[in-house]
Amino acid sequence: MKPDTAHLVALARERQAEVVTFLQDLIRIPSVNGRDAEVAVAQRVAEEAARLGFKADLIAADPTRPNVVVNWGDGPAGFALIGHLDTVAAGDATRWSSAPFAAEIRQGRIYGRGAADNKAGIACGLYTLALARDHGVLDPNNVRLILAGVVDEESGASSQLGARYLLDQGYLKAQGAIYAYASDIVCIGHRGLLRVTLIAQGKAVHSGSPEWSAGQAGVNAVTGLAEILLHLEALTLTAPEHPAFAGLGCTLTPGTLFHGGEFESMVPAQAEALVDVRLMPGQTSQTVLDEITRVINEVVGKRPGLHVALTVKNDLPGAAIPADHPLAVIAQRYTHQITGRPWPIAGAGPANEGYMLIGAGIPTLCGFGPTGGGAHAPDEWVAVDSLSQTIAMYLGIIRDYLDPHGP
User: Fold this and answer.
1) N or C: which end of the chain has fewer CB within 10 A?
2) For 400, what's the count of Cα atoms within 13 Å in the CB-facing half-sphere?
3) What is the pLDDT of residue 3?
């Protein structure tokens, strides 16, 4: 007989102390993208998996940055729980109410960089496998569960080292997946991401020289690039609407990073800016690139001697599964049963690697997990009680989606 929902929650609560200790350990191992290789976090996941009786494999395109994969079951129906091992930087530690990597517990919350994004999801995912095995929730002859802790997501969700590598190497063969971010929605997709770098070249001259005063020499790369950014800010970009992305459209944010000039008394000959664009599902990046190029050409045409080069840093599409997909419907049912509130079925504004999975033909919830907040901000947190609730939801969702008749 299949455990009912209340029984799933009770089983998960019995292991909550273990999950909390494991998550605290993960948070206390810094894995800031671009600074800390993820190997120590991957090894800690593998160590916990071994303690629970699972074999974990470290699978890497770069040996210093291995993904960690844990499997249970030998059945034909696969389901993947995925989280990324890397985090963003902590930023100014004085803005945190406790040390960013201390994993301190206060008033029912665990605080620390990576708590919500994305280490709590990894901890819940591993213990989902343990409870599925230990309590007969799923039949290992029918199903195969995969936990994947992947690297390098925070570099722009387009890395070749993490989820992309595991997909290409055949380690994520599944009929469904959950990217285990902290959430309060049943996330069926996300907007895309286009990031471009604009590099302006002018001509330096002494800012006190008669030639500059007379307009006979010098080209200001900073003001030229600034004019381009202001024109980009005024653009209205059309994009297809999507019912799951209410209140969201295509947004273009110019100058999220800006550098320019060489010295106080020099007309700046160099300037560089990054432009961040969020694309709607079904919207192509080329139409936006054409608009950006048009603006560049217009400004350059008015400023002789100014040259601007455009390079694409990130280009990934928006993606979504249908709102009435069984995976979403089942997930919403369990949010209602376990949390007392049916979470909205909706799309996310920020991009993630869910598009890789959906593009590979794997229906995916692109963000579904514990209750938390503060991602990419000070005092990032996850609610302790939501960890066991999440494990129970994962168990129920996977069971009803893959193995509705049970063992």
Assistant:
1) N
2) 19
3) 78
